[in-house]
Write a structure and sequence with these properties.
Helix content is 55%, strand content 11%. The chain is built from twelve helices and seven strands. It has a five-stranded mixed sheet with strand order 3-2-1-4-5. Helix 2 links the parallel strand 4 and strand 5.
Length: 328
């Protein structure tokens, strides 16, 4: 019965896992050691007290697993780190695929928490631990996201201004566009100031800007949204950027599914950078031309260029960090 979330041979997992289903107001914690499910308020004090109580009664967990939930998991992650407990913040799409692969269908908060214990138990040795980001780097990511929102609003205003029959509101649209442009300039200045406070950020940005086709927006977005860049394999870097195709086999069918998942903030910016790289980067330009000549759709060819660009960026940062001079 897959929805009972039983483990192999009906036995409890050897590892002690806490599966945490996080919502805006509540966290449901499944303790694989005791089999008890706890419901607590999603506040720093309540989460910290619950984890401390579980540690005292069931022992320190080998791993805590939660999903990314738009930032609502932050209190849990910070509390775990403060208590010295290892925690993994799982990609929701991967967890969903894992549950489906085991035939899971029923969905409640308690069941989801139980599935997360199984996910953590089966993949314990391969899951990366969450680490709190540098405050300055996190602030840069916040600014970059807000910048994207403002740019989308400005583009919408420009499109409306250029459409027929807008004379009655043209002055308002022009004022809105001017205001949003000033907001973008303010954010760019603020991001520059924050970059100076972030360890290694300016050095890594300079290394990325040396890649033809990589501008300041893409460089800063990569460093803000994928802070792990430079410590990843090529495949992992492409996957985090949402640019890794996935194999799909059925009978005699052998193909790859379109790239999906990853961190949503970086993918559209990567496509814009790929457009530039397809024109200005010697190797990527030739690569793009070969794909088009082979009959590949332009969107797929650009996705391939974007994927290579992220892989190159990962390698460049890795090399820059190795070359960092050591104090003697």
């Amino acid at each position: 019965m897959p929805d009972s979330v039983s483990f192999a041979s009906g036995a409890a997992p050897a590892a002690h896992i806490l599966g945490c289903d996080v919502a805006k107001r509540e966290v449901v914690i499944r303790d694989s050691s005791s089999g008890v499910t706890h419901r607590i308020a999603n506040t720093s004090a309540a989460v910290s007290a619950a984890l401390d109580r579980i540690r005292e009664t069931s022992g320190s967990p080998d791993l805590i697993v939660c999903e990314t939930t738009g930032g609502h998991e932050r209190a849990l992650c910070v509390a775990a780190i403060a208590l010295g407990l290892p925690i993994h913040r799982a990609d929701a799409a991967r967890v969903k695929a894992f549950i489906e692969s085991h035939g899971g269908k029923a969905k409640t908060d308690a069941i989801d928490a139980a599935w997360l214990t199984r996910y953590g138990s089966e993949r314990l040795k391969t899951l990366a631990l969450w680490r709190p980001p540098e405050p300055a780097r996190e602030a840069i990511a916040t600014c970059m996201r807000h910048r994207q929102t403002i740019l989308a609003r400005r583009t919408a205003a420009k499109n409306r201004l250029g459409a027929p029959g807008q004379d009655a509101v043209a002055d308002l649209l022009e004022a809105e566009i001017d205001f949003l442009s000033r907001q973008v300039a303010t954010l760019d200045a603020r991001i520059g100031e924050l970059a100076g406070q972030c360890e290694d950020f300016e050095r890594d940005e300079k290394a990325l800007r040396a890649i033809k086709g990589v501008g300041p927006v893409f460089a800063r977005s990569l460093l803000a949204f994928i802070p792990e860049l430079g410590s990843l394999s090529a495949k992992a870097a492409a996957s985090l950027a949402g640019l890794a195709p996935h194999p799909h086999e059925s009978g005699q069918t052998r193909r790859k599914k379109p790239a999906s998942g990853g961190r949503a903030d970086i993918k559209p910016i990567a496509f814009m950078a790929a457009l530039s790289a397809a024109r200005s980067h010697p190797e990527l330009s030739a690569f793009y031309a070969r794909l088009i000549a082979a009959g590949k759709p332009k969107r797929l060819a650009l996705a391939a260029v974007a994927r290579k660009l992220v892989v190159i960026a990962n390698a460049v940062i890795k090399q820059a960090r190795r070359a960092k001079p050591r104090l003697t």
